[in-house]
Amino acid sequence: MQTYVALLYSIILGEGRRVVMADLKAMAEGLGLRNVRTLVATGNLVFEAERTATAALEKRLEAAFETAFDRHVDIIVRGAGDWQKLASCNPFPTESEEAGDQVAVRVMRKPVAEDVLSGLQAYAAEDEKVLLIGGDIWLVFSRERPSSRLLAAANHKRLGIGTSRNWNTVRKLAEMVGSRE
């Protein structure tokens, strides 16, 4: 058995779009996934399954979600080891300690190319940072600005399928998967 993390994109945006985590857990269990757990109400699943390609799990979960909730949601899956590596490669440890909710990673389905980084940096305010690590985009957002141009620039149209999680969530998911592989 392998432990996986699944991240759902934007399941709480807009009227009538909220998904109850108990229903999400039941959906995953209906697929035969084991030891299914959720973290906060923003679409984070940890589960165990036979060792399977993440792309196949993404497709299964997306199809089940569409059937259960009558709409499509992009889902990104990472194995426990890959999630632990992502968390351990946080390029902003000081900022994460000081304000974990202002540090985020945009976890990508397909790795982002290096040349995208300069385009994103053009949107960063002087107190914001952006780095590309392992194909995922790490960001530090400003506490001084209620809205960030950088956040708006790191979207599906520009970067492809991905979803963002703040450092507090990344760390808690890493703790949930522990050393399970």
Summarize the structure.
The chain has 8 helices and 8 strands; from the N terminus they run E-H-E-E-H-E-H-H-E-H-E-E-H-H-E-H.
Write a structural description.
- There is one protein chain.
- This protein is α+β, with helices and mostly antiparallel strands.
- The protein has a four-stranded antiparallel β-sheet, with helices on both faces. A four-stranded antiparallel β-sheet has the order 6-7-5-8.
- A hairpin with a 2-residue loop joins strand 6 and strand 7.
- Helix 3 crosses helix 8.
- The longest helix has 16 residues.
- The chain is globular and about 45 Å long.
- The mean pLDDT is 89.
Give the topology.
Layout: E1 2-8, H1 21-30, E2 34-38, E3 44-49, H2 54-69, E4 75-79, H3 80-88, H4 93-98, E5 103-108, H5 116-121, E6 129-133, E7 136-140, H6 149-153, H7 156-159, E8 162-166, H8 167-177
Antiparallel strand pairs: 1-3, 1-4, 2-3, 5-7, 5-8, 6-7
Oligomer: single chain
- Which structural class do the helices and strands define? alpha+beta
Form type: globular
Distance between the termini: 8 Å
Order of neighbouring strands in the sheet with most strands: 2-3-1-4
The helix tally amounts to 8
> Overall mean pLDDT score?
89
Radius of gyration: 16 Å
One letter per element, helices H and strands E, the order comes to: EHEEHEHHEHEEHHEH
